[in-house]
Write a structure and sequence with these properties.
heterodimer, A: mainly beta, Immunoglobulin-like, seven-stranded mixed beta sheet, four-stranded antiparallel beta sheet, 11 strands, B: mainly beta, six-stranded mixed beta sheet
Chain lengths: 114, 113
């Protein structure tokens, strides 16, 4: 099973500050994803990547940037954090080798923006 | 565009009773459907998956059948246990981009003694 880790696990930030959430996966998957989870909305895709150097916009990319410097690492960057970005963020990795992209999730990062 | 609908936000049941969590989807391409389960303070994990029409798939006592005629992939279990209390997400991937999953809003299942 894919091993996906996230850091930090909890973060408190101030409005207008810069926040970087990090994700690392050790199973050599090509694809990595960032989601946010809010009650009533399920998991919403923010950004994803097909490999090192690539980033793609998901359904809710506004206010977020992503960076994929290597196969293993995928970061989510909030340049100017706002209280509306308070949420739980999940990173996932996967490959569409079986014709579909089964995804393996990290433990999540709880972000609070004050 | 592609979408997934889960109509029940909250389901509360007594241990030992059967459960069905509804999932319908919209896509114009050939679909793959998934059920993910998320226990409290844990990451979502894959529970079931299917792309075969009218074939039942089972795992850990849960089962679901993809019905393309009705665009449905309902999750069922004949006898729920306390440990089944969790958040359940239905998800869809389909062409042209099978790399992206579309999740429903989730159903929180609470099983009481």
């Amino acid at each position: 099973e894919a091993a996906v880790t996230q850091s930090p696990r909890n973060k408190v930030a101030v409005t207008g500050g810069k926040v970087t959430l990090s994700c690392n996966q050790t199973n050599n998957h090509n694809n990595m994803y960032w989601y946010r989870q809010d009650t009533g909305h399920g998991l919403r895709l923010i950004h994803y990547s097909y490999g090192a150097g690539s980033t793609e916009k998901g359904d809710i990319p506004d206010g977020y940037k992503a960076s994929r410097p290597s196969q293993e690492n995928f970061s989510l960057i909030l340049e100017l954090a706002t209280p509306s970005q308070t949420s739980v963020y999940f990173c996932a990795s996967g490959d569409a080798t079986g014709g579909y992209a089964e995804q393996f999730f990290g433990p999540g990062t709880r972000l609070t923006v004050l | 565009g592609d979408s997934v609908t889960q109509t029940e936000g909250l389901v509360t049941l007594t241990k030992g009773l059967p459960v069905m969590l509804n999932c319908t989807y919209q896509t114009t391409y050939s679909p793959f459907l998934f059920w993910y389960v998320q226990h409290l303070n844990e990451a979502p994990k894959l529970l079931l998956k299917s792309s075969t029409d009218n074939k039942r798939t089972e795992h850990q006592g849960f089962y679901a059948t993809l019905h393309k005629s009705s665009s449905s992939f309902h999750l069922q279990k004949s006898s729920v246990q306390l440990s089944d209390s969790a958040l359940y997400f239905c998800a869809l991937t389909s062409g042209p981009n099978y790399n992206v999953l579309y999740f429903g809003s989730g159903t929180k299942l609470t099983v009481e003694p």
